[in-house]
Amino acid sequence: xxxxxxxxxxxxxxxxxxxxxxxxxxxxxxxxxxxxxxxxxxxxxxxxxxxxxxxxxxxxxxxxxxxxxxxxxxxxxxxxxxxxxxxxxxxxxxxxxxxxxxxxxxxxxxxxxxxxxxxxxxxxxxxxxxxxxxxxxxxxxxxxxxxxxxxxxxxxxxxxxxxxxxxxxxxxxxxxxxxxxxxxxxxxxxxxxxxxxxxxxxxxxxxxxxxxxxxxxxxxxxxxxxxxxxxxxxxxxxxxxxxxxxxxxxxxxxxxxxxxxxxxxxxxxxxxxxxxxxxxxxxxxxxxxxxxxxxxxxxxxxxxxxxxxxxxxxxxxxxxxxxxxxxxxxxxxxxxxxxxxxxxxxxxxxxxxxxxxxxxxxxxxxxxxxxxxxxxxxxxxxxxxxxxxxxxxxxxxxxxxxxxxxxxxxxxxxxxxxxxxxxxxxx
Length: 427
Ligand SMILES: [Zn+2]
Fold this sequence. Notes:
Layout (H helix, E strand, L loop, with lengths): L1 H28 L13 H34 L2 H8 L4 H34 L7 H36 L7 H33 L2 E3 L4 H10 L6 E7 L10 E5 L4 E6 H6 L2 H16 L4 H22 L1 H14 L7 H11 L1 H28 L3 H14 L8 H7 L5 H13 L1
Parallel strand pairs: 2-4
Antiparallel strand pairs: 1-2, 3-4
Helix pairs in contact: 1-2, 2-4, 3-4, 4-5, 5-6, 6-10, 7-9, 9-13, 9-14, 10-11, 13-16, 14-16
This protein binds zinc ion.
The site of zinc ion has 4 residues, from helix 9 and helix 13.
């Protein structure tokens, strides 16, 4: 029981952080805006922004709390033993049922909150264009694909866990064999993730309508910006974001073997070509990015994880004991991969948080680099104008607390970002 209480305490951390974060955000919002972003909102729009954020508070806290209560329930109740009984003790059946039930619960718990957020709050502030029918269609498609992929991944992991003792001669193997086995497992998982990224790409094409960008001056200008890209851009397309929201966006979709540019129709309809080119010059900056020391260090994390797993394989008896202890604590007779990985993720949560802060920091550096590319192409002023416009239209928090920006933002906050662009323009 003590172990379960430890898990419950770890699972409560995101909730605690969410409350702390909200407190920081509200405190920061009372300060006057820095000069870089002082003209983003009109007085009236600022009041709308504050009111909007205030209304979002309750659904945000509620969704955090509900997610925690679900965790708490599965940790403290005999949930995993029930799932095993439902599957008659079949290890794959148990994994599949657990994964599907957990996905369904989190879907059903999250659905009313997002429904309320979108159709009550966002509609009130004219940020939503989605019909209810479209909302349910998207949510259900996402749920079904997510559940299928998630369950397939867990079944794959369960297969690996169940066969490890046999593959490793009851964990009595030389080091080189452990490396080979881990390399094989890694290859299979990477192949699976490749497949999953293609499937989510296909899903995006079901949710939106993509049409190739018309031939003409704009397309020629975009192609000019893309010269010198390290990855090939195979398509430049417009998608119907207007069917969903007022959001204006242009992005590069990364797939294992090619890149594809998507431009929201809202953007094309309401902004000048120079503004769109400013954003695409930023995207082109990403495509020209060469791996830096920080990217390589990031790969080193995976390298370290790999070594750790090889070591665990060589000392497999420890692994087997831990698995058995887990089964004992949760009253199970077979290994449940969903539980194993849930426990690992609860316990390593603080470490994962640190790693994600590190990756966000690298990502912000790359965003700044891409912004500098847009400045270099001569679109600095348009980039700033576009950011200000989007921030006002979408009620973006332009001046987030430094700590929140540092920990969570994968793009620089607007204040930092505009400051950096000004800096690059003066250089
Ligand atoms: Zn970017």
